[in-house]
Amino acid sequence: MRVDYLGLEAFVAIADFGSFQRAAEALSLSQAALSHRLKKIEEDLGGPLLIRSSREVSLTALGQSLLPDARRLLKELLDAYASVRAGARRSARWMSFACLPSIANSLLPAVLADLVRERPEIAFEVLDIPVSRIAAAVREGKVEFGVTIVSAEQSDLRVRALAEEDYVLFLPLDHPLAEQGYVTLPDLRALPIVGLSSHSRNRQLLDMAFGQLRDHMSWRIEVQTAPVALRIAAEGAAATIQPRSALRMAPDSLVALPFKDVKLSRTLGVVSRRGVPLSDVAVETLRRIEEEFERNFGTPPEIRIGRTPGHPD
User: Keyword Signal on this protein (predicted)?
Assistant: First the structure.
């Protein structure tokens, strides 16, 4: 059944204004055109909706039963229309991307500062979310791309490596190991450690790198985010192992020691939807991010990303 939107609009306007003349003016119609719309919907519904006298307009029983639903339907339609139009305008001037919190804290501020100055017509939305949520945000179209820890490439996502970042040990400046200038795996046995949740990708990478040693380490505190781990380390309660980029958000009372006898690192990269081109603003933003990565981490690593079984090249 076809819904007569124009007829509903005319009926509600007459009921709200209590006058054909004022309703016609509000809808920018002649009174004849307004009357025609009302007559048409009354014919569709099979009965009169209004009683018009020389002094007033009143609702019939049919009109009284229809008015609440008609108002609701018109409001929902107007709200939907406004939402879609606002979304189109927003997408035209907004660019959204996801990023690891550690990178968002350390490298992104300089990139975004330049972009905001040079592209005043564009607004940027950064989802600084855990790695476990970045791929989903890209896949669902919430963001155009994500800066993440590289893992196996999925059939619907494209992954490209950008940099290799080392993990370092953060502990207080007055700790005995600070004078040594580096740390070894045997040193970790005697250290209380504050680590990220065992479900986090960073923790999983470290557990794989440590192998059997992880069972002999003193994981004393588990937290959800790197800033909290760094604050706890600054109080001297425990040391923490974090990516080197965490230096930017570490308290001044901490020192970062490299590992001497083992290579602990993570591969950072960008993930985007396969077959969906990036907008011009996203391309420019990603180029700036890549330049910042190269300044901080060097040239991109030569890494072949594995594909899920059965995915064509």
Answer: no
* The two three-digit tokens of residue 41, written as one number: 């919907």
Give per-residue pLDDT as tens, 106-159. 899 999 999 999 988 889 999 999 888 999 999 999 999 999 998 766 788 999
Query: What stretches of 151-300 show up as alpha helix (H) in DSSP?
Result: 185-188, 201-210, 226-234, 280-297
- Do residues 97 and 127 both lie within one domain? yes
Tell me whether residue 185 is in a domain. Answer: yes
Do 131 and 171 have their domain in common?
Answer: no
- Burial bucket for residue 165 (CB in 10 Å: 0-12, 13-18, 19+): buried
Residue-range definition of the domain harbouring residue 125: 93-159+272-297
Tokens encoding 78: 């107007």
> Is position 311 within any domain?
no
* 167 in the same domain as 232: yes
- Separation of alpha carbons 231 and 254, rounded Å: 9
DSSP 104-143: HHHTHHHHHHHHHHH-TT-EEEEEE--HHHHHHHHHTTSS
Low-confidence ranges of the chain (pLDDT < 50): 302-313
Helices 131-139 & 201-210, crossing angle to 10 degrees? Answer: 130
CB contact at 8 A, 219 and 195:
yes
